[in-house]
Design brief:
This protein is an all-alpha fold. It has one domain. It contains 7 helices and 2 strands, in the order αβαααβααα. It has helices spanning 3-7, 21-41, 44-59, 65-78, 87-109, 113-133, 137-153; strands spanning 18-19, 85-86. Strands 1-2 form a two-stranded antiparallel ribbon.
Length: 154
């Protein structure tokens, strides 16, 4: 379910920034490819590079390298999006992805390969679900936290 509908009536402040969901799915597709390579090769430096991409996009999803590629190559051919999604859940999801890939890269680079594999596989699962089905696990977690924190403060 696109986040635009998920946020309807939930009182979530999007902070004014809204994103093209197609760009998020494109980024998730590229992330999936990177993580398949990481899992197939055990390249901890590539996992660290993906963690860096997540760190940049956690600050601003529009500034990540995949966003630039999307805007330069695909957006002109696709045209404007039919709907947009708020940025805070996406930023939270990128922060979660950073955490997973930071642990994965540390695992690979320190010889704890099993840790690297497990955390990279979790990252791949989340990225693939977003790319293939537009299901952003981090975004859903963000919404759940907002609902729980709203229920406790009421």
């Amino acid at each position: 379910m696109p986040l635009t509908r998920a946020f309807a009536g939930r009182g979530c402040d999007a902070g004014g920034m809204e994103l093209d969901p197609r760009g998020q799915r494109f980024a998730a597709t590229l992330t999936s490819v990177v993580l398949v390579v990481v899992l197939a090769t055990g390249w901890g430096w590539l996992a660290l590079g993906q963690a860096a991409v997540f760190a940049v996009t956690a600050a601003d999803p529009r500034r990540g390298p995949y966003a630039y590629v999307f805007r330069a190559l695909l957006l002109p051919r696709l045209g404007p999006p039919a709907e947009r999604e708020p940025a805070p859940p996406v930023r939270f999801a990128q922060l979660v992805g950073f955490g997973f890939l930071a642990v994965a890269s540390v695992g690979y680079l320190t010889g704890l390969t099993a840790v690297g594999v497990v955390f990279a596989a979790f990252g791949l699962l989340a990225a693939f679900l977003n790319a293939a089905f537009s299901l952003c696990l981090g975004c859903e977690a963000y919404l759940a936290v907002k609902r729980l924190s709203g229920a406790r403060s009421a």
